[in-house]
Design a protein that fits this description.
With about 1350 residues, this protein is mainly α. Strand 3 and strand 4 (about 665) form a beta hairpin. This is Fanconi anemia group I protein.
Length: about 1350
């Protein structure tokens, strides 16, 4: 039959073929068709001619037999495709494709114009057969899905639409083979689906993602993205994001997952290019679900999409805002530990996320490289441009090393450029600083991984530096990190860095210094680069610009420091000598630096101090440095020992003898300190004979200098009591300059004498004698100094000290050592003024040593901090109120003991900022010295335990200071501040925090209850600490009790009788009439911050979906406590600033309540009893009292204004000055703002009552109209007088006599005067009555 059919199909007329097929049984045709298909893979047995013949012999208009043959043919093809597995990928694949390509165009089964001729039920049966094949969950020929999509479209448009929908439901409910899922997704794109059907299909397709192999996921998602054109874009995007979020939680096969995600991101980017609405929907989705942005894939998708220009700005703004919000929320969560129980956010997670994306960009995620680089730059620029306290930056004027007399005397000859610089290494990072660090770390990672962005990053660095951008300092930090950590990657881009050097002399001084520090490693390694840098610095040294010269000096010093260090490492030289090449470079640089000694003082000071520091860091250069410094010293040293003054001050101060304007030209103290430091270094090493002779000669001169300084009086320098120190006169300026130079010189020789002779009797006496000369001169200047207008003023004397940290540490340790009771050092210790001088200089010296960027002795600085801390903590533990450190306590200023406490506190702060990870180690060392423990590691078991023990020691110090008949209030206040500092360092999330905090609260609570102290600063510190820590451990009863005591002492608004204060029931004796005002302000400050935190918590309730009920319960409980405190204060008689602050707190209270009510309206699940309690307290406890308080406050303000008006009217002055006007404007706003917020709160509360079917307004008092006030007595008087005036006027107009009219006119003027007088009397009576009413409501 097969051959006959094929032969007949070749004829031009097909009627014989039709007749022949009509004669054959349908079963025979089916058997032949299947035989042809099954044997199709055999050679020379192509089934296509036979199938084509069947189609030609079964025309659509040939009757029922023809239609049945077509349907049978379709059924046979489906059967064959479902049974022949090889047709999927085997030899029959080509035949299956040919069969499908033949049957659809030729059969015209699915043409719309022939639907009425088709057996739709047969098509439905065919679709059922295909569905059954799908249910079997086995591989299928992909051509079957072309059938099902076309059959679906016909059925959905026919009377069997319900059957088609049921078929779709069956497909969605069935299990899909991996290959089936892929083909179905493609088939769905060809099917005409309603939105509901589309949602059903998409949901089922997304469920299949988890069942696919990693390599099958990208093409499946691509089909879903094509399907998104029909609708439900967000559903598809959210499903994809959720799928990969779940995958990231499973650690298995992460490498394959990363490749899959990279491919999917490419598909998403391509889909968004074709359909930008999809990109907009992606941005909207992640913007509404910002927590999901912290998923790696989601963030990478945004960055990949940011390459599209239309979406670029929106995406970068979204990511930037999210990162800033997260870091700020992290900071707030850290400060409020209770929040972290319900809402956890971690800024470090964002940093790790972005760095992870940067890492993956090198392994398949290429599409995020450019966007991630740009995002990092945006973060850095944003932080730098915000400023205003968001970033912990400071404006640095060049310090004393750069401009000695400017820094000391504030008499600038030339203005020095200022620049916003990055916090020093000892500055504590704030949230915005951390964001900047994230940007730097990202760019550093991208520079390391991708050569394609290296040039762009270096160009951006150059651009920021040259343009003096606010972010220049951050990009300089990035450049320094790049050169240090990835020098080999930067080698190919040295030309980019060289271009920056051309602008070196035009940069601000701090920026130029940081640039030179950054490129120092390159200059040390690359000779060509070094030569180019030296050429630039040489030009700058001889430029007219002073800043350029100072930059040049700093650059040469850094170059010399780095070159000598690198040469020593390469040569392995252990003999303190240099190679020939290094010597040539070193001598060339030293020769250039020597030329600076004839330039401005700023340049000289920079060179002197830099050389002195370099001699200590690179001892191989100490001898050469000594030679050039010693030659300069001889110019200002008086070698004639017969002259009592060893220094030629007239040479150091220009125009000192000619009568012109004086100006310091030689910074003697810095020169002297540097050469003495070099001299001490040379004492410990060998040097040649020429240098030995110079050193010997210099020692003799220094000995003579020291001796003569100790003997010479201020009179020998023409600085006696009659000397002129008027800063407005040239002679006065000269004498002030002389004094500053001598004061610094005294410090330099004192340090040298002590460090060389150590603990000898003669040395200690000499040091003390020099100190007395210094003190005498300092006192003389203070007593005789005058300002610009000739008035006597206290001169500005710099806190900058010439002393070194090494000297401060040594002398402090010796003076207060327990083993030096009979030592000569007691000569110095017995002088309380010298002790005060050393202690007061310690903090500044320590801070400057740590902040010095060129300092390489970080570990030595930490050791010095430990030594100083142990000494000071020992003094605090052993010295009492009868100590010698207190006996000489001044009436004004700080005592020696107080200065010692401040210095110890400063040491604690320096440790936390510079070595935050070693603070516990430092504290443990102090504890070991207190308790005489041999091993400080005994205290490393628990951080909170160590801090708690230290706090207990300070508590005992406070008690001892206040136990004497003459209590040390000021010193106790300082110790209390240290306790606050340590309590802030407790780890709020550690298990033992509650116990540690409870111990502090117990001690403070008992102390405040039992001690009646009237010292306001001490009371503020104690009460505020008690309030803060009590709030952290949810002990609000203590705070409420404090507010009740304040209420009792200040008086109640409703109470009208006077009460004896001795009869008041007060819980806390420390709260009294004198301290009550300050404590009230502390309570209001606490409430202000508390309600701000609560508003933040309410705003984040939606984000904590898992713990929202618990979080809401905690918020309501805290709100209830805060409202109780507010209620007590609202009932209290407050005036002035406390009253204004209370009104502001009330406004913030109702804003917080409004936010809580809005949250309940939008998320109404249940009105809990705690929420009802909050509303009840707000209504009955606060609102009712608030209106009474505002009434009394308004009356008090009226009285105050009236009294002020009478006083000024009597004196003939203007009604008010600028301050009073500002106060009136301020007060005119705060009350209306408060009333508006209250009304908004009540309006939304009504909405919530209606929505929840619960009457919440029953607790609220009806609002009082405060738009105006009517004074009834004044209105009555005015009405009576108006009636009398009208009657008088009617009588006068009836008189026609001209003279009478003139007389009446005179009479009217007199009546007007009488009327004004009567009105004034009425106002005075009203004011007196108002004032009397107010006074009755106050307690005496």
């Amino acid at each position: 039959m097969e051959s006959t059919v094929i032969e007949l199909s070749k004829q031009s007329q097909h009627q014989k073929l039709v007749d022949y097929l009509n004669e054959q049984p349908l079963e025979e045709i089916t058997k032949s068709t299947l035989s042809q298909l099954n044997n199709g893979s055999l050679l020379n047995n192509d089934p296509i001619p036979f199938i084509r013949a069947i189609i030609l012999g079964s025309p659509l208009d040939g009757g029922e037999d023809c239609i049945n043959r077509r349907c049978a043919l379709l059924d046979n093809i489906i059967t064959w495709m479902s049974n022949d597995v090889e047709s999927i990928n085997g030899a029959s694949a080509k035949i299956a494709a040919n069969v499908a390509n033949l049957i659809w165009p030729e059969a015209r089964i699915f043409k719309n114009d022939n639907i009425d001729k088709l057996p739709v039920h047969d098509l439905h049966k065919a679709s059922i057969r295909i569905l059954n094949i799908i249910y079997e969950d086995k591989p299928m020929n992909p051509r079957l899905f072309e059938i099902i999509s076309k059959v679906w479209n016909i059925l959905s448009a026919s009377d069997l639409a319900a059957e088609a929908d049921k078929m779709l439901n069956d497909i969605c409910k069935s299990e899909w083979h991996a290959d089936v899922a892929m083909r179905l997704a493609s088939a769905f794109n060809e099917m005409e689906l309603t939105q509901k059907q589309l949602e059903r299909v998409i949901s089922q397709s997304l469920k299949q993602l988890a069942k696919l192999d990693p390599e099958e996921v990208p093409p499946f998602i691509y089909q879903l993205l094509l399907l998104s054109r029909k609708g439900h874009k967000r559903l598809i995007l959210s499903g994809i994001c959720d799928f990969f979020a779940d995958c990231n939680k499973r650690p298995d096969n992460l490498e394959a997952l990363s490749r899959t995600q990279g491919t999917v991101m490419l598909h998403i980017s391509f889909a968004i290019k074709q359909d930008q609405e999809l990109g907009i929907e992606l941005v909207k989705y992640l913007k509404s679900e910002r927590i999901k942005m912290l998923e790696t894939f989601n963030m990478a998708c945004l960055l990949s999409t940011a390459r599209l220009h239309r979406l670029e700005d929106n995406i970068f703004d979204l990511i930037k805002t999210t990162i800033i919000t997260i870091y700020r929320d992290t900071d707030r969560s850290r400060k409020n530990a209770w929040i972290s129980k319900y809402f956890s956010v971690d800024g470090d997670a964002v940093k790790n996320l972005l760095l992870d994306i940067a890492e993956r960009s090198a392994s398949g995620w290429d599409q995020v490289i450019q966007s991630l680089t740009k995002l990092a730059m945006i973060l850095i620029d944003t932080v730098a441009n915000q400023g205003n306290g968001l970033k912990s930056s400071k404006n640095l004027v060049n310090n004393i090393d750069l401009c000695y007399h400017q820094y000391l005397m504030k008499m600038a000859v030339n203005k020095i450029d200022t620049v916003t610089v990055k916090p020093s290494k000892s500055a504590e990072q704030k949230p915005m600083d951390k964001i900047s660090s994230v940007g730097i770390d990202i760019l550093l990672k991208m520079f390391k991984l991708h050569d394609v962005v290296r040039g762009e990053i270096l160009e951006q660095i150059t651009s920021r530096i040259v343009s003096r951008s606010n972010s220049a300092v951050d990009f300089l930090q990035l450049l320094e990190n790049i050169i240090k950590k990835h020098p080999h990657a930067a080698e190919n881009y040295l030309n980019n860095i060289k271009d920056t050097l051309d602008f070196l002399s035009f940069l601000p001084n701090p920026a130029a210094r940081q640039l030179l520090t950054a490129i120092q490693p390159v200059a040390s390694e690359n000779d060509q680069f070094r030569d180019g840098l030296m050429l630039v610095l040489r030009k700058s040294m001889f430029s007219k610009d002073q800043d350029g010269r100072m930059i040049s000096v700093y650059g040469f010093l850094k170059l010399l420091q780095g070159h000598v260090s690198e040469d020593t490492i390469r040569e392995g030289n252990n003999k303190a000598t240099l190679s020939i090449a290094s010597e040539e470079i070193a001598f060339e640089i030293l020769g250039l630096l020597r030329r600076c000694f004839s330039q401005q003082i700023e340049v000289r000071a920079e060179a002197y101090e830099g050389l002195g520091r370099l001699a200590g860091q690179r001892t191989t250069l100490a001898g050469d440095i000594f030679e050039i410094l010693y030659a300069q010293l001889l110019k200002i040293y008086q070698q004639d020992t017969g002259v009592p003054t060893p220094l030629k001050l007239d040479v150091c101060v220009e125009n000192s003898l000619t009568g012109g304007r004086p100006r310091i030209v030689e910074p003697i103290p810095i020169l002297l300190a540097s050469i003495l430091k070099t001299l001490r270094i040379l004492d410990t090493m060998e040097h040649n004979s020429v240098t030995s002779e110079s050193v010997k000669q210099c020692r003799e001169h220094i000995s003579s200098l020291t001796f003569r300084l100790s003997k010479a009086d201020p009179d020998d320098y023409e600085l006696d009591k009659s000397a002129n120190f008027d800063a407005s006169a040239y002679i006065g300026q000269r004498n002030l300059f002389y004094s500053e130079l001598l004061l610094g010189s005294y410090e330099a020789v004192m340090e040298y004498e002590f460090m060389t002779q150590k603990n000898s009797q003669e040395s200690c006496e000499l040091v003390l004698n020099i100190f007395k000369k210094r003190k005498l001169l300092l006192q003389l200047v203070k007593e005789n100094a005058a300002g610009d207008k000739g008035r006597k003023v206290t001169p500005y004397l710099s806190s900058k000290s010439i002393l070194s940290l090494e000297f401060i540490t040594s002398i402090t340790q010796l003076m207060f050592s327990r083993d030096t009771v009979n030592s000569p050092i007691n000569v110095l210790r017995s002088d309380i003024n010298f002790v005060y001088y050393i202690v007061s200089a310690t903090y500044n010296v320590l801070k400057e040593a740590i902040e010095d960027e060129t300092n390489e002795s970080g570990e030595e600085n930490f050791t010095s901090c430990v030594i100083l801390g142990k000494v000071y903590i020992h003094i605090l533990m052993t010295e009492g109120p009868d100590s010698s450190f207190v006996e000489s306590q001044p009436k004004k200023g700080v005592s020696t003991l107080g200065m010692l406490i401040d210095t110890l506190h400063g040491v604690f702060e320096i440790i936390t900022k510079t070595w935050p990870n070693r603070f516990i180690e430092f504290t443990g060392s102090l504890l070991s010295s207190i308790e005489n423990a041999s091993d400080p590691k005994d205290y490393t078991s628990s951080n909170n335990l160590i801090l708690s023990k230290m706090i207990e020691n300070f508590e005992s110090v406070v008690i001892s200071y206040l136990s004497d008949r003459s209590p040390l209030y000021r010193e106790a206040t300082r110790v209390m501040q240290t306790i606050v500092f340590f309590s802030a360092r407790l780890d709020r999330k550690a298990p033992g925090f509650t116990k540690c905090a409870q111990n502090i609260v117990t001690w403070l609570d008992g102390f405040v209850k039992e001690r009646s102290i009237e010292d306001i600063p001490l009371a503020k510190e104690m009460v505020m600490t008690l309030i803060q820590i009590s709030a952290e451990i949810d002990s609000f009863d203590t705070i409420i009790a404090i507010s009740k005591d304040v209420h009792t002492i200040l008086g109640d608004l409703e109470f009208e009788e006077d009460i004896d204060h001795n009869e008041l029931n007060i819980s806390y004796m420390l709260i009294n009439e004198k301290t009550c005002g300050a404590i009230t302000l502390q309570l209001l400050s606490f409430l202000d911050q508390a309600f701000e935190d609560m508003a933040w918590c309410i705003g984040h309730l939606k984000l904590s979906t898992d713990s929202a009920p618990e979080f809401e319960l905690a918020v309501c409980k805290r709100m209830l406590s805060y409202l109780s405190i507010t209620s007590e204060l609202t009932k209290t008689v407050l005036v002035g600033i406390p009253a204004e602050n209370l009104i502001k707190v009330l406004a913030k209270t109702y804003k917080t309540l409004l936010a809580l009510v809005k949250y309940k309206i939008s998320n109404l699940v249940e009105i809990t009893d705690d929420f009802v309690a909050v509303i009840a307290m707000a209504g009955t406890g606060v609102t009712e009292k608030m209106y009474r308080f505002l009434t009394i406050y308004g009356q008090y303000q009226d009285d105050t204004i009236a009294q002020s008006g009478r006083k000024q009217k009597g004196k003939g002055k203007e009604p008010s000055n600028a301050r009073e006007k500002a106060k009136i404007v301020r007060e005119a706003k705060i009350i209306p703002n408060l009333i508006f917020v209250v009304e908004q709160f009540e309006r939304h509360l009504i909405q919530l009552s209606r929505k929840s079917k619960k009457d919440l307004m029953q607790y609220m008092k009806r609002s009082t109209s405060r738009d105006f006030k009517i004074k009834a007595d004044i209105v009555e008087e005015a009405t009576t007088e108006d009636t009398q005036l009208k009657g008088s006027h009617a009588y006068e107009t009836g008189d026609e006599d001209t003279g009478a009219q003139a007389g009446d006119g005179d009479q009217t003027e007199e009546e007007d005067q009488e009327e004004d007088q009567e009105e004034e009397e009425v106002e005075d009576q009203s004011e007196e009555q108002s004032s009397h009413t107010t006074k009755r409501r106050r307690l005496s």
